[in-house]
Amino acid sequence: MNGSTGDIADDFYHRFKEDIQLMKTIGLDSFRFSISWTRIFPNGKLTGGVNQLGVKFYNDLINELLSNGIKPFVTLLHFDPPQALEDEYGGPLSPRFVNDFVAYADFCFETFGDRVKKWVTINEPNMYAMRAYDFGSFAPGRCSQCHAKIVKLYRKKYKEKQKGEIGITTTTHWFEPKYRALPSSQLAARRVLDFMFGWFAHPIAHGEYPESMRSLVGDRLPRFTEEQADLVKGSIDFLGVNYYTMYYAEDAPSTARIFAATNPSYSTDSRAIQSSTYMSKTNYSNC
């Protein structure tokens, strides 16, 4: 109505020094930010050229943080895989994406790693799968092998000399049984947590998906090869968790289970119903 646009938002690119002074004033000792892949490699690849203005911006940002006693905490991929790689070979769905992601990470470690001591490979990898392929609202991606190979590169080539740490940041809600006295609700809460948090945390710890996912999803769930499992297992120095809220979970009724059997998807596979409403242990009228 008044001609406003979103062309200029918080304008961090031009005003980061002011923002850092605000961080210092309120006593922050670290700042997590994400490097935009295409601000470094406009075409997604090192062979396509490096944007030196982008490199300068991140160098200036890192140096300004450190000069104010604030540690940079850097994420490499935050919902923005390069469109050029999507157009060329399907982006993260292609195995070729892994090598391009590793090359981008290698450049970042080499360029910024003398000052950055905390690295996150991917922000909320489960959102790439759920919000991209199930709901269609986020950019698509496959993450496990990218993450694991980048960690392997960092540990082999940079960790000893740069003295840094590398991990991944996932997201989850917490789930409580809607009917706490019912074992079926207790199991449903555990299953939903497996499907949201365990989906990505369990392979990193154990080299495979949670048993509940393997059992309920069956052949539609990809299997790790022995080599892939060895690569993924233990591939973190730390685990970041973005936690937003909690829900209640209950076992799906028989009609929902029949629907899930004929309409398999991430939304139905857990055989559980989520809600924000709690029912006391003595009120089973809606079971």
Automatic annotation (TrEMBL):
One GO term (biological process): carbohydrate metabolic process
Any one Gene Ontology molecular-function term assigned to this protein's record: beta-glucosidase activity
Stored Pfam families: Glyco_hydro_1
PANTHER family assigned to the protein according to its UniProt record, in alphabetical order: GLYCOSYL HYDROLASE, VICIANIN HYDROLASE-LIKE
Family as reported in the entry's similarity comment: Belongs to the glycosyl hydrolase 1 family.
Protein name per its UniProtKB record: Uncharacterized protein
Native source organism of the sequence: Linum tenue
Lineage of producing organism: Eukaryota, Viridiplantae, Streptophyta, Embryophyta, Tracheophyta
